[in-house]
Amino acid sequence: MAHIDRTLWDGVALRRMRAGADPDAAPRSVALPRGWDAEAGVALAALVPGSGPVALPRAAEAWIGRAVRGGLKAGILDEAAAASLAEGLRTLLLTRRGAPGAEVWRNDGKAVQAEPRFVLNLPAFLEAEGGFDTQGYAEACALAVTALDR
Questions:
Q1: Are 75 and 82 in contact (CB under 8 A)?
Q2: 87-104 per-position pLDDT tens digit
Q3: Mean pLDDT, the chain, whole residue set
Q4: pTM over 0.85, yes/no
Q5: Which residues have C-beta within 8 Å of that of residue 145, sequence separation ≥ 6?
């Protein structure tokens, strides 16, 4: 079970819904942050293998944990850098600025090794005044590369 206490997830209010990516399959119980639309629930139901209940914090912590452990094991990250990477990935996900490709969520080892992906949501970097958060985008790119490198 993924550890979420004392992380960014600790204060996130979740709502529960029933969703399924396959219209012929029974819908799953999905827990995601309040304010996220039903499409996000359908996407999460499709991303996480299985047919049982799924919660965004637990599903995300599974791939975040793999990235952090890989960096620690390879000696690329120390404890502080690992904690920073994990919190940065949580922030990207919760702000809907970025997330890894489906193969990372599904822990598909062959696909991750062959062609890992991280998807950035460009509209999430638009500023209220009409500009683009270039610094935030550059930081998100660097974070995504770091995560995929692990």
A1: no
A2: 999 999 999 999 999 988
A3: 90
A4: yes
A5: 118
